[in-house]
Write a structure and sequence with these properties.
This protein has about 170 residues and is an alpha+beta fold. It is built from 4 helices and 8 strands; from the N terminus they run H-H-H-E-E-E-E-E-E-E-E-H. A 6-stranded antiparallel barrel has the order 2-3-4-5-6-8. Strand 6 and strand 7 form a beta hairpin. The radius of gyration is 15 Å and the shape is globular. This is Peptidase C51 domain-containing protein. Pfam families: CHAP.
C-alpha cells in the first residue's frame, strides 16, 4: 500500500500553465520527476518537491546553478507536488536554460529560460518561460535550489542519454 502511494506521488503533476489546462491534464504519463531521474541518474523518488530533503546526505545541494544540476521547485497551490528541471546551461548569474517534462502538459521542453527573480540572487524565486505565450510566465515560483547529481564527467555523459530511457 505504501509503495503504491509513493509511486502515485512520483507521478504527481508537475506543471505551470494558464487556467485553460485542468489540473488533470498535468497527470498524464509524462512527468517531470521520472524525466529528470532518467536524464541525471539520481536515485530520488516521490513528489518532485520532496527531492530536496531526499537529497540530504546523498547528493550535494547548492544555490548556484551549473550544467546537469536539478532545480527543485517547492510545492505551491499551482504546483502541489513541486517540479524539477535539469540545467542545460548557465547564461548569466540570473538566467539559466533548463529542460523539463510536463511544465506544459505532455511535453518535453529543452533550452527553456528560467530567470532568478529572488531579492538576494540566490535562486529561491524564479520565473519560467511558458511556450503558449512565447514569453516568461507571469508567476514567480519558489525553489529550494539545485541538486548536484554526480561528478562533472557523469553529467556530460548523461546529457546525451536518449529521452526514451525513462
Amino acid at each position: 500500500m505504501v509503495l503504491g502511494f509513493s509511486f502515485c506521488l512520483s507521478l504527481a503533476a508537475c506543471g505551470g500553465g494558464p487556467r485553460e489546462y485542468s489540473r488533470a491534464s498535468f497527470n498524464g504519463p509524462l512527468q517531470c520527476a521520472p524525466y529528470a531521474r532518467a536524464k541525471t541518474g539520481v536515485a530520488l523518488y516521490g513528489a518532485a518537491a520532496s527531492w530536496w530533503r531526499g537529497a540530504s546526505g546523498k547528493y550535494r545541494r547548492t544555490q548556484s546553478p551549473a550544467q546537469g544540476e536539478i532545480l527543485v521547485f517547492r510545492s505551491t497551490g499551482r504546483l502541489p507536488s513541486g517540479h524539477v528541471s535539469v540545467v542545460r546551461s548557465t547564461v548569466s548569474s540570473r538566467k539559466i536554460l533548463v529542460e523539463h517534462a510536463n511544465w506544459e502538459p505532455g511535453r518535453i521542453d529543452r533550452s527553456v529560460p528560467v530567470i532568478d527573480v529572488s531579492r538576494n540572487n540566490d535562486w529561491s524565486l524564479v520565473r519560467v518561460y511558458w511556450a503558449p505565450i512565447k514569453n516568461l510566465g507571469s508567476r514567480a515560483y519558489p525553489t529550494y535550489g539545485f541538486i548536484v547529481p554526480r561528478d562533472i564527467d557523469d553529467i556530460a555523459r548523461l546529457q546525451e542519454t536518449p529521452d526514451h530511457a525513462m
